[in-house]
Amino acid sequence: MFIKKNWSVPKGVAPTEMDKIILRYQKEGYLVPKRKLIKTPEQIEGIRKSGELNTALLDMVTTEIKEGMTTGELDRIIHQFTLDHGGIPAPLNYEGYPKSSCISIDNVVCHGIPDDNTFFKPGQIVNVDCTTILNGYFADASRMYIIGGETTPEKQRLVDVTLECLQIGMQEAKPYRFVGDIGYAIQCHAQQNGYSVVRELCGHGVGVQFHEEPEVTHYGRPKTGMLLVPGMVFTIEPMINMGKKEVHFSREDGWTVTTRDGLPSAQWEHTFLMTETGLEILTH
Questions:
Q1: In the predicted model, what is the mean pLDDT of residues 184-206?
Q2: Are 216 and 166 within 8 A, CB to CB?
Q3: 115 CB-side CA count, 13 A
Q4: pLDDT at 3 over 70
Q5: If DSSP codes are grouped into helix, strand and coil, which group holds residue 66?
Q6: Mean of the pLDDT values across residues 13-29?
Q7: Residue 41 burial by CB count (10 A; 0-12/13-18/19+): exposed, middle or buried?
Q8: Which end of the chain has the smaller Cβ count within 10 Å, N or C?
Q9: Helix (H, G, I), strand (E, B), or coil: what is residue 169?
Q10: Which of 121, 122, 113, 126 is nearest to 72 (CA)?
Q11: Distance in angstroms (rounded) separating the CA atoms of residues 148 and 145
């Protein structure tokens, strides 16, 4: 059996206890992280500060988002807030993406492009996804908002269960467990509630770059995927559909992802640091 050897100990250096654990898993054939994925204390502090800005940004969205506003107007507010606080909106011009945030309404799963022709209406469920760069460090999070404060019981339940999926995934993310443990727990909870999990999109490593390893899928089997190690920074961001899991990628704009059956979708996201005892949320 071929084993991809991502982890090694420099010659002449005594292996730490963490080295020994990772090398044992690698020898047994499990996928382990590359050493560069383990963030330094300086990097962690930088990502933590970026996370604080990201949190303040989404808190601001909570006060600003309202019926009658356009998604384009909200995006401009997000853009200016980020700049005013010394940050850079990471989505802007990323692989050609034209705006500073992703704003996804009802059946838009993710990557909704803000514009001045799309108005917020009462009862809509809206995901606002922001990634901030502060002093070269990235933090990524999204929240669900309900326009007007009330929606249908069916949409409200979808929003609530999706948040539960994130929380359950967080509980399964422990040092020296696996990405697959997170996905399995999320998938089980979603399906037990009659929902489906989007498979084409996933969480990801983040911090020094916008997207890093590992891919954090929100479905799967226990003890599969990459080993989770203290010092790793990544997102968990389940996209849960009210109906079937199949999605459609827009050919017109190249970004917008919608449910194929037209039913609503919801998503919550945080950036996390894996510690010796569990997760630290960096985007409260």
A1: 98
A2: no
A3: 9
A4: no
A5: coil
A6: 96
A7: exposed
A8: N
A9: helix
A10: 113
A11: 9
DSSP-derived secondary structure for 222-271: TT-SBBP-TT-EEEE--EEESS-S-EEE-TTTS--EEETT---EEE-BEE
Both tokens of 281, joined, read 């949320």
Distance CA 57, CA 173 (A): 26
Q: How many residues does the chain have?
A: 284
From 52, 104, 108, 99, select the one nearest 80 (Cα to Cα): 99
Which amino acid appears at position 222 of this protein? P
214 prior amide bond cis, ω within 30: yes
Which DSSP helix (H) or strand (E) runs through 64?
A: helix 41-64
Q: Which residue is associated with the tokens 């998938």?
A: 187
CB distance 68 to 114 below 8 Å: no
pLDDT tens sequence across 226-264: 999 999 999 999 999 999 999 999 999 999 999 999 999
Question: 87: which 2 tokens?
Answer: 């940050």
